[in-house]
Amino acid sequence: MSEEQKVDNTKPSHADGTTAANENGKVGFILAMASIAIWLIPDFIFDSLSGITQILLAILSFAMPVAGLFFSILGMKKHPKGLAISGVAISILAFIFFLFHAFVGCVAGVVEVLEGLP
C-alpha cells in the first residue's frame, strides 16, 4: 500500500473533510448535565410536588447518571473524546451526589422515626 493510499482511521471524517461527531459522547454528556440539574432542584420545590412526581424524579436522578456513564464510556472509543471524558466525570460526580442525598434522606428519616418513639 502506497503512502497516498494509507488512511488515518483515528479520526473519522465525512466526505467533505469535516470530522465526524461523537454522538455517544454527546448523549452521555447531556445526560450527565441533566442529572446534575435534577439533583439541584431545591427541596422546597421538591416538597411541593406530588408523590408520583417525587418518585419519578428520584428514579431519574439514579438512572440518568448511570445512562450518562454508559454512553460516555461508549463515546471514549471514538474521536473527539472531550465530551465523553466530561460525561464520565460528571456522571460519576452526579452519582456520588445521588448517593449522598439518599444517605442524608435515610438518616433524616431514621432520626424522625426515633424522635417519635416514646
Please describe what this structure looks like.
It is a single chain. By secondary structure, the chain is mostly helical. The protein has helices at residues 23-39, 43-48, 51-75, 82-115. The protein has one domain (19-115). The protein has 4 helices and no strands.
Map the helices and strands.
Elements: H1 23-39, H2 43-48, H3 51-75, H4 82-115
Helix pairs in contact: 1-3, 1-4, 3-4
Fraction of residues in H or I helices: 55-70%
The profile of the biggest β sheet is: none
Tally of DSSP helical segments: 4
Roughly how many Å is the radius of gyration?
A: 21 Å
Contiguous uncertain segments of 5+ residues: none
- Based on secondary structure, the structural category is mainly alpha
Strand/helix succession? HHHH
Number of separate domains: 1
Beginning-to-end CA distance, first to last residue:
85 Å
Overall form: elongated
Strand content: under 5%
Average pLDDT taken over every residue: 84
Q: How many strands appear in the DSSP assignment?
A: 0
Short characterization:
With 118 residues, the chain is an all-alpha fold. It has helices spanning 23-39, 43-48, 51-75, 82-115.
Describe this protein with a few key phrases:
118 residues; mainly alpha; 4 helices; 69% helix; 0% strand
